[in-house]
Design goal:
Order of helices and strands: HHHHHHHHHHHHHHHHHHHH
CATH topology: Growth Hormone, Chain: A
CATH class: Mainly Alpha
Shape: globular
Low-confidence stretches: 1-10, 412-416
CATH architecture: Up-down Bundle
Structural class: mainly alpha
CATH superfamily: MFS general substrate transporter like domains
Number of helices: 20
Distance between the termini: 53 Å
Number of domains: 1
Length: 416
C-alpha cells in the first residue's frame, strides 16, 4: 500500500497503527449496533420488556445514529475527525454504563440512544482520515479493510456475546465494552492527527451550514442515498430478525458475519478492477435481492442449506465499501465529512425503517400457541425487502459515476 501525505512522514508503522486504531473504534460500533439480537430474551425476562419495547430498544440506536449524521458531518469538516472520535468514545463509555446499570425500560432506551450518539461518527470520521491521508485510489480498499475487520464487532455480538452473557451477564459484558472504548479513545487522542488543519483556515459556521446545502445539491446524491437505505439495513434485518435459542442464535449468526468480513475486503478493490463504482454495487445488490427472494419463496431450509444461504448472503451483501467510495468520489475533499454523513444517514435510517416496517408486517400475522409468529410472516418480510432492493437498483442505475471513463462516440458507418 502506497502511503502519502501525513502517513508518509509517519512511515508504514505509523500508518498501520493509525488504521488499526480506527478499525478498533469501528469494532465497538459494530458490536453495539448488533448486540440486541442475542440478549433480547434476557432483557425481556429480567426487565419485563414487551416485543414493542424490544423493537424500540433496538431501533433507538439507529434512529439517534441517523438523526445526528448531519451535525457530525459539520463537526468533521470544521474541526477534524480527531475531536469527533475522542468525544464520541467518551459518550459511548457513558452510554455503556447507563445501559449496564439500567433498572427500567426507559433507562435501557436512554443508554441505547447514548450508544448510538457516541458511535455516530466512528465510521465516517475514520473514512475522513483516510480521505485526507492516503491516495484517492486506495480509499475503497481502505474502506473495505475498515468495514471488513470492523465487522469483527458484529462477530463478537454473536456467539462470544452469548457466552459472555451466560458467564458474567449482559450487564458485565457492557461494562467491559465501556472500559475497552475508553482505552481506544485514549489511543485515538495519541495517534490521530487532523491533517486538514494545515491546508487552510477553518470554515465559518455559516460556510459549514451552506456546505450541507451544496452537498445535497450534488448530482446523484439522492440516487446514492436510496441505495444506502438498503445497503446495511438488509444485513441488519437478517441478523436482528432471526429467532432461536441463545446458543443457536449466536452460532448461526456467526456465519454471515464471517463471510461479510471476507466479502468487505474482497469487494473493496472492485472499483479499480471493474473501472467503475456502479457496476459492482449493482451486482452485489442484485445478488442480495436474489438471495432474499429465494428465501422468501422456499421458506424452510435444511440446516446444511441454511448454513450455505447464510454464507452466500453475508458475502454478496458486503458491497458497502464500493458504494461508500462512489459517494466519496462525488464530493470535494473539504466536503467529504458532510457528504459521507448525509449518505450514512441513509444507511442507519434504512435500518430503523426496515426494523420498524418488518415489525409492523410481522404483527399482521396471528401468533401461534407457542407464542411464535408463523413462517409466512418472515417470508413476507424477506420478499418485501428483496422487492425494495430491486426498486432501489433501478433508481441507482442512472447515478453519475466519476470513476467511469466516458464512452467514445461510435463512428458512423457511412458519411453523408
Amino acid at each position: 500500500m502506497s502511503i502519502q501525505s501525513g502517513s508518509q512522514r509517519a512511515g508504514p508503522g505509523g500508518a498501520i497503527t493509525l488504521v488499526a486504531t480506527l478499525i478498533s473504534v469501528y469494532i465497538v460500533s459494530q458490536f453495539l449496533r448488533n448486540s440486541i439480537g442475542v440478549i433480547a430474551p434476557n432483557l425481556a425476562q429480567e426487565l419485563g420488556l414487551s416485543p414493542g419495547e424490544i423493537g424500540l430498544l433496538s431501533s433507538a440506536f439507529f434512529f439517534v445514529f441517523a438523526a445526528v449524521q448531519i451535525p457530525v458531518g459539520v463537526v468533521l469538516d470544521r474541526f477534524g475527525p480527531r475531536l469527533c472520535l475522542v468525544v464520541g468514545a467518551a459518550i459511548t463509555m457513558v452510554g455503556a454504563v447507563v445501559f449496564a446499570a439500567a433498572a427500567s425500560p426507559g433507562m435501557l432506551i436512554l443508554g441505547r440512544a447514548l450508544l448510538g450518539l457516541g458511535t455516530a461518527g466512528s465510521l465516517v470520521a475514520s473514512l475522513a482520515v483516510y480521505a485526507h491521508r492516503f491516495p484517492p485510489e486506495r480509499f475503497a480498499t481502505l474502506t473495505g479493510l475498515q468495514i471488513g475487520f470492523g465487522t469483527v464487532g458484529a462477530l463478537l455480538a454473536t456467539a462470544p456475546l452469548a457466552f459472555s452473557t451466560a458467564t458474567i451477564g449482559w450487564r458485565g459484558s457492557f461494562l467491559a465494552v465501556g472500559a475497552f472504548t475508553g482505552l481506544v479513545g485514549l489511543l485515538i487522542a495519541v495517534v490521530v492527527r487532523d491533517e486538514h488543519r494545515a491546508r487552510g483556515r477553518h470554515e465559518t459556521l455559516r460556510e459549514s451550514l451552506s456546505g450541507i446545502l451544496s452537498v445535497l445539491r450534488t448530482s446523484s446524491v439522492g440516487r446514492l442515498f436510496v441505495m444506502n437505505l438498503v445497503m446495511y439495513s438488509t444485513f441488519g434485518l437478517i441478523v436482528g430478525l432471526w429467532g432461536c435459542s441463545l446458543e443457536a442464535r449466536g452460532g448461526f449468526l456467526v456465519i454471515p458475519v464471517l463471510t461479510q468480513i471476507v466479502g468487505s475486503m474482497m469487494w473493496g478493490p472492485m472499483d479499480r478492477l471493474m473501472g467503475s463504482h456502479k457496476r459492482p454495487v449493482l451486482i452485489g445488490a442484485g445478488a442480495t435481492a436474489a438471495a432474499l427472494g429465494y428465501l422468501a419463496l422456499v421458506g424452510t431450509l435444511s440446516p446444511v442449506m441454511l448454513v450455505a444461504w447464510f454464507a452466500v448472503f453475508g458475502f454478496v451483501s458486503a458491497f458497502g465499501p464500493v458504494l461508500i467510495a462512489h459517494g466519496k468520489a462525488l464530493f470535494s475533499l473539504h466536503q467529504v465529512g458532510r457528504g459521507l454523513t448525509v449518505l450514512n444517514m441513509g444507511s442507519m435510517g434504512g435500518v430503523f425503517l426496515s426494523q420498524a416496517v418488518s415489525g409492523f408486517v410481522i404483527e399482521w400475522f396471528p401468533i401461534a400457541a407457542d407464542g411464535a409468529y408463523p413462517l409466512a410472516a418472515y417470508r413476507a418480510v424477506f420478499g418485501l425487502q428483496a422487492a425494495f432492493i430491486l426498486l432501489v437498483c433501478l433508481v441507482y442505475l442512472y447515478s453519475r459515476d466519476p470513476s467511469e471513463k466516458p464512452r467514445k462516440q461510435a463512428r458512423p458507418l457511412f458519411r453523408a
